[in-house]
Amino acid sequence: MAIVAAGEDPHGWQVNGTSAIDYWKSAEDAVNPEGTAELGKMVTLIAAAGEDPHAFGGHDYLTELKGRMKASGQFGDFVYTTYWGLFALVSAGEDISLPVAWLKSQQNDDGGYGWMPGAESDSDDTAAVIMALIAAGERTDVPAVSRALDYLRVNQMEDGGFNYGGSSSSNAASAAWAIQAITAAGEDPSAWSKNGRDVVSTLADLQQPDGSFRWTAYTTDNPCGMTARAIPALLGKPYPVLPGQKAPALQAPETSTTTVPEKTTVPQTVAPTAATAKWQPVTVTDDYGVKVRIEAMPMRIVSLAPANTEILFGLGLGDRVVGVTDYCNYPAEATAKPKVGGYSTVNIERVVAANPDLVVAAFGNTGEVVDHLRSLGLTVIALNPDSAGGTLRDIRLVGTATGTGAEAERLVTSMEARIDAVKERTEKATDTPTVVHAVWYDPIWISGNNTFQDEMIALAGGTNAFPDMEGWQIITMERFITTDPEVIIVNSGTGMGEGGTDLIYRYFMDEPRFKNLKAIKNNRVYIVDSDLIDRGGPRLVDALEEVAAAIHPDLFEGGPAPATAAQQSPGFGAFAASVALAAAGLILLRRAE
To answer: What is the mean pLDDT of residues 72-76?
Structure first.
């Protein structure tokens, strides 16, 4: 869409004689979009290229998309799947009355919109709904639009940008959505400012010397994708982008700001207390091979991942934790701690303001953020457990780094005993059923090899039904049916740590095409708390015991817990935990593309 927004023909963008449109007609991952949102994007892209979505590469994508619209006008089960469906219908000149009415009914009391019915409002989804409704012909003075614009005004960040939600840092994708929505409403986004910083400048300042755009001021992530999102926004082209689309001229700010964030001064930590006087400096090696020397006992600790938070509290360090992410929801005491941003959108300023003498980081924070924190003089250890053994190693590492080595050893010993007890029982099994762990369902995401869940299935006496898939991957409906797993393990709630009904479980049980699967016929679809199975922390053994009981109910007293609808802890957890956050992150990135 960026190419079309720039007034160029994507058919002419070729590499070795193959254009971007040729790719969409033939590439395996493009020809058969599995998710509802992906299908809506496909139709929107086809229309943007001036092609026919009824006949593109031998596929009738528009008819397939319309087949996913419910009688209410909702596409799929979510707000985001519906606004992408609406973008597609508008692009194709189809009737849009039902999805418009449904989207308008999803407005929250604060004027914004969330990613699913009942979810907390956020700037990205609110901006997208504004664009979709206006594209469908809604006036800007109707409450569904005007109140949504007011929500964006209230939630513009201090640096002039926007974020996805919570305490996370502002980012290019959110700024682009907001600019497009503001432009669609006929307003000048360069006039939307906070503290003298307007949203257009904030986005423009994320451009790098090579022309690409960073995700945040400190993080480069998918620069091609970020650039493709920035281009239509800076050109004043809201979605859906169509050939020949006109846009109002954007007023350029009179003054420009620096492109490099100001260096943040790190305050001095509190003076040592009597408790720290006995401390002997230690040097630990974190999961990235970095040797970190800790001169004094850490008394003010910031955690940048839910699993890290659970480890810290598990070692009795809750009173020393002075900052956590928006997704740290366990134990309950952690939710009352000051927030320092998201998992992959760490708010550097908030971390510094917490005055930490130790930051416990994680893989998803990105190396750029970790390096920047260290450049500010902060002591950082970065964790990246890749297995149950890696989790036990990290618990010991944190114990050494915080002076709680004895507590860490007791916790690890207890966990090892429980893991060994599970292995001892499953070794008596006469079979190893094929098992799939489903992370999401629209499209179907599963845990393949080299994941926590793959190891957990093996420890629990099962065989991963998709051993050839690396990491977390999308599986087609056809592949899932032909594989016919004997046991299906699904994440609880929405699958991403937010309160609600068990959508993934409901999907597998209600989908007519799955009725003949072994797991469905034998009632072997089980729900496991997503926070347990996705986090490399002390509760990893709880998940292992649940999974083992599901796979081999005859070997475990009482068998697995009944599959009933469960409420999850509040707080959006698309980046809900340690390793599995990578999968959830991919889901959200696909949603925003």
So the answer is: 97
Distance between CA atoms of residues 175 and 183, nearest Å: 12
Assign 3-class secondary structure to 312-345.
Answer: HHHCCCHHHEEEECCCCCCCHHHHHCCECECCCC
**pLDDT computed for residue 294 by the predictor:** 96
Residue closest to 481 by CA, chosen among 447, 518, 433, 455: 518
Q: Enter the tokens of residue 458.
A: 């093996």
Collect all residues with Cβ–Cβ distance below 8 Å to 104 and sequence separation of at least 6: 133, 138, 142, 144
3-state secondary structure 128-152: HHHHHHHHCCCCCCCHHHHHHHHHH
- Contact (CB, 8 A) for 234 and 190: no
> In whole angstroms, what is the distance from residue 267 CA to residue 430 CA?
61
Distance of CA 303 to the CA centre of its chain: 18
CB 111 within 8 A of CB 150: yes
Nearest to 319 by CA among 371, 273, 378: 273
Count of Cβ atoms closer than 10 Å to residue 280 Cβ: 8
DSSP of 5-28 = HTT--GGG-EETTEEHHHHHHH-H
- Strand 301-303 and strand 291-294: the pairing is unpaired
152 C-beta neighbours (distance < 10 Å), count: 23
Side-chain half-sphere CA neighbours of 354 within 13 A: 29
Q: Which runs of consecutive H residues, i.e. helices, occur in 156-259?
A: 172-184, 199-204, 223-234
Burial of 61 (C-beta count, 10 Å sphere; 0-12/13-18/19+)? buried
First to last CA, the chain: 10
Separation CA 414–CA 63 (nearest Å): 56
- At 502-560, the pLDDT tens digits run 889 999 999 999 999 999 999 999 999 999 999 999 999 999 999 999 999 999 876 66
**What does the pLDDT look like over 439-479, one tens digit per residue?**
999 999 999 999 999 999 999 999 999 999 999 999 999 99
- Helix (H) or strand (E) holding 104, with range, is helix 97-104
Rounded (to 5) percent helix, strand, coil in the chain: 45, 10, 45
pLDDT tens column, 295-344:
999 999 999 999 999 999 999 999 999 999 999 999 999 999 999 999 88
CA distances from 347 to 9, 365, 372, 451, 566 (A): 39, 10, 12, 28, 31
Q: Are 13 and 19 in contact (CB under 8 A)?
A: yes
- Look up tokens 């802890």; give the residue: 569
Q: What residues form DSSP beta bridges with 438?
A: 446, 490
C-alpha dihedral (141, 239, 111, 154), degrees to nearest 10: -100
| Residue corresponding to tokens 């999803």 | 106
Question: Six-digit token pair at 411?
Answer: 């916790």
Residue 564 — very low, low, confident or very high, per pLDDT cuts 50/70/90? Answer: very low
